[in-house]
Design a protein that fits this description.
Helix 1 packs parallel to helix 2, helix 2 packs across helix 3 and helix 6 runs antiparallel to helix 7. The protein is globular. It has 9 helices and 13 strands. The strands form 3 sheets. Strands 1, 4, 5, 6, 7, 8 and 13 form a 7-stranded mixed β-sheet that branches. A 4-stranded antiparallel β-sheet has the order 10-11-9-12. It is α+β, with helices and mostly antiparallel strands and 329 residues long. It has 2 domains: 171 residues, Ribosomal Protein S5, domain 2 (2-Layer Sandwich), CATH 3.30.230.10; 143 residues, Alpha-Beta Plaits, CATH 3.30.70.890. The chain binds ligand DP6. The site of ligand DP6 has 15 residues, from helix 5.
């Protein structure tokens, strides 16, 4: 009863921000992301009578906060598989935690596949996405390849809230996402806490909800037509609208640092000069820059020359979660 799975991180072009059900992790709006090829988490899970309690090791460390979330997730799998066996979980990611790349997305997608397989459940992609969602909303999208839409669903039990590919990983191979890692001076508020506070207090949250469907249509069509200008400009605007709801939350949530602003202004002026690129930012200071392969090298060089940028990582549309025989123990 041992299985190992690999899943990639993902970055949203149309963001998920706000829940309609906190326990089941049901989103208030649908979202669209790119699964980031090469930014991987590998997780091995074994259920066995030989374990007296669950053990969780992530990147060679046993962290209490993460352990609670993983054990709660294992309980869901045990419930579905009708087993009481305890588990050993070992997980490792090949990208820095500081990248703010929602390691919870790749983490819970890999955990969902490894744990369900190890427990003898044979889930299809939709069922797997629904399970991964219970760990972290964005993890529902890391299950699928390429560009992915997470349908918010309408049912109260969450059975129609899952993600699936809009197009496969090889559909738009020229698309690039350059992640910049900048210095962070303050500890950030988690996405979970931040979005809950936004829903409760931002006067702009309604405006967010009222316009997100139009963005979903624009980005979905932009991806299908491989229209970089339509996709990138709408994704950038969507990110700014999300941050407007964050900034107007009480107390205010400002994830941006000086380096974040430096990159925003640089992207805007580089685009005016003719290198087409757009930015998107999640619940942290790092900026992700979208471009096409023909501009990637030059943009990456320019980004790395900015004072606040410590490092960049580039990725292209990647695979969904999959099983492997390379067990971590
Ligand atoms: C800003 O998926 O981390 O990155 O469901 O509470 O675990 P929980 O939140 P999480 O939120 C991600 C928020 C975001 C936007 C996005 O990825 O769509």
């Amino acid at each position: 009863m041992k299985a190992t799975a690999v899943a990639n991180a993902n970055i949203a072009l149309v963001k998920y921000w706000g829940k309609r059900n906190d326990e089941l992790i049901l989103p208030a709006n649908s979202s669209i992301s790119m699964t980031c090829g090469g930014l991987m988490t590998t997780t091995t899970v074994e259920f066995s009578e030989k374990f007296e309690e669950d053990s969780v090791t992530i990147n060679d460390e046993e962290l209490a906060a993460e352990k609670d979330a993983v054990v709660a997730f294992l309980d869901l799998v045990r419930q579905q598989a009708k087993t009481r066996l305890k588990a050993k979980v070992v997980s490792s990611s090949n990208f820095p935690m500081a990248a703010g790349l929602a390691s919870s997305a790749s983490g819970f997608a890999a955990l969902a596949l490894a744990a369900s397989e190890a427990a003898g459940l044979k889930l299809n992609e939709k069922e797997l996405s629904i399970l991964a969602r219970r760990g972290s909303g964005s993890a529902s999208r890391s299950v699928a390849e390429g560009f992915v839409e997470w349908h918010k669903g309408n049912r109260n039990d969450g059975s129609d809230s899952f993600a699936e590919s809009v197009v496969k990983a090889d559909y738009w191979p020229e698309f690039r996402m350059i992640t910049t890692i900048v210095a962070e001076t303050k500890k950030k508020i988690s996405s979970r806490a931040g979005m809950s506070q936004t829903v409760k207090t931002s006067p702009y949250y309604e405006g967010w909800l009222n316009t997100v469907d139009a963005d979903l249509t624009t980005v979905r069509n932009g991806i299908k037509e491989r229209d970089f200008s339509a996709t990138g400009s709408c994704a950038q605007q969507n990110c700014l609208k999300m941050h407007a709801t964050m900034i107007t939350t009480k107390p205010s949530i400002v994830y941006w640092q000086p380096a974040t602003m430096e990159i925003i202004h640089s992207v805007l002026s580089w685009r005016e000069e003719g290198s087409e690129c757009y930015f998107t930012i999640d619940a942290g200071p790092n900026v992700k820059v979208m471009c096409l392969d023909k501009n990637e090298k030059e943009l990456r060089k320019r980004l790395e020359m900015l004072e606040g940028v410590k490092k960049t990582i580039t990725c292209r549309p990647g695979d969904g979660a999959r099983l492997t025989d390379n067990h971590l123990f």
